[in-house]
Amino acid sequence: SSHRKHVIALRVRGGEKTRTGLYMCNTVCSMLRKGLQAESGKSKMIVVSEDSRDDAEVLVCFRVDMKHRFRRNLMKGEAESAMTKQKLQQRMREQFQKAMGGTPSWAESSDQKRRRRRRDEEDEDEEDEDEEDDLLRRTGNFVASSDSLPSGILRVKKCLHANSARPSEDRLTTVQFHPSAQVVMTAGLDQSLSLFQVDGKTNPKIQSIHLERFPVHKAQFKKSVCVQTKEVVRSMKINGDVSGVAFSPDGSKVFANSEDGEVYVWDMRSSRCVNRFTDDGCVRGTSIASSQNGQYLACGSQSGVVNVYSQEACLNSANPKPLKAVMNLLTSATALTFNPTSEILAIASRAEDEAVRLVHLPSLTVFSNFPVAKRKIVYRASCLDFSPHSGFFSLANNKGHAPLYRLLHYKEF
Questions:
Q1: Are residues 271 and 388 in the same domain?
Q2: What residues pair up with 338 in beta bridges, in sequence order?
Q3: Do residues 75 and 217 both lie within one domain?
Q4: b (16+ CB within 10 A) / e for 272-301
């Protein structure tokens, strides 16, 4: 009885003769009972004729009543009072795409996604080519000048991996830019250390060293080569295990946080603890970082919360309150790094894929468009670093790669 609401377009082919017409569903059902055998799950049926050896082909297309109150708004005119199921689906798809401003990414086919990615990359390349060329023509030690970094959306471009010329065969533990040259260093558990020239396009390898039976957990450029004696000059103790250490910009103070959630401030000249406080809301500390302008101190915890403090308050108050509690990580905050201009704080967790965020410090808000890719690129990051004047940002991940990003706001390397 419910089938009587539909009209059927029927075309019967037998030999060289073809008949086409509209029939009510009950009429077709009667015809089927008299000799039509339907192929299950298809709109194609076979008619066996008693007086002919030829088979006839019946094409059945159900037409939907468009005057129903749930479908009336899909009509474009009275001529569309009945519509095929296929056409109705297409009309609904068009209306959805119009409401969404185009096909959403989750509804795109693989070919559509590849074409869109290729088109977006070409557009970005054309837009940023002049800026990149201008940046890469400048080298050496120079003072960077930059307008204030805007919040909200970070202008960033994904580049070729920094170590693409020689990926690590195991987890990468270190990525660091040279303080004056256009060079980046990577090291990891595959017992190797490598240097690459950074141009954002090919990043050619300069040198790679294999260290026999020596997995590298941490490597770092020395800013000064004046240290000759290699003697221990200071030894300081705290309660509990040390989870992180950071120096003030002038090197006169050292900040250390413990797994118990306490932060200690030591004076390097006198080896005296000048302040001690509990990181707000922290049960177990995991990381710590100090900004280069001496304004901020960031403390990471096992819960993923990163508290950003005023360094002045940390030096003078027994109970400083954070300027901001950044809660964008859901697992332990294991890596914190400030950029050289102290406008960005990079935070990451190596316990979860894609768990990296960039914080705009003047507004204490998180940039909404990083990580930028819709597919996994970052994976699990264990080390973060900015180039000397913030033109590039890179990280070391568990796949042996060092994803590289060009921060377009900054004109210098």
A1: yes
A2: 345
A3: no
A4: eeebebebbebebbbbbbbbeeebbbbbbb
Q: Is 233 helix (H, G, I), strand (E, B) or coil?
A: coil
Residues 80 and 173 in one domain: no
Whether 354 contacts 403, CB under 8 Å: no
Nearest to 140 by CA among 84, 179, 109: 179
User: Sign of dihedral through CA atoms 186, 208, 205, 177?
Assistant: positive
CA dist 323 → 86, 140, 346 (Å): 58, 36, 16
Residue 158: how many other CB atoms lie within 10 Å: 16
Whole domain around residue 84: which residue ranges?
2-100
3-class SS of residue 90: helix
* Confidence (pLDDT) at 136: 56
Q: Minimal CA–CA distance to 401: which of 210, 254, 190, 116?
A: 190
- 22-42 burial code (b ≥16 CB/10 A, e <16): eeebeebeebeeeebeeeeee
Question: Model confidence over 32-52: pLDDT tens digits?
Answer: 444 444 433 333 444 444 344
Indicate yes or no: pTM above 0.85. Answer: no
Q: What CATH number corresponds to the domain at position 398? A: 2.130.10.10
- Mind listing the pLDDT tens digit for each residue in 246-268? 999 999 999 999 999 999 999 99
Domain boundary among 85, 100, 115: 100
**Which of residues 140 and 66 earns the better pLDDT score?**
66
168 and 298 housed in the same domain: yes
Domain count, the chain: 2
Q: Are 284 and 261 in contact (CB under 8 A)?
A: yes
Q: Which residues contact 58 (CB under 8 A, 6 or more apart)?
A: 10, 11, 12, 13, 36, 44, 45, 46, 47
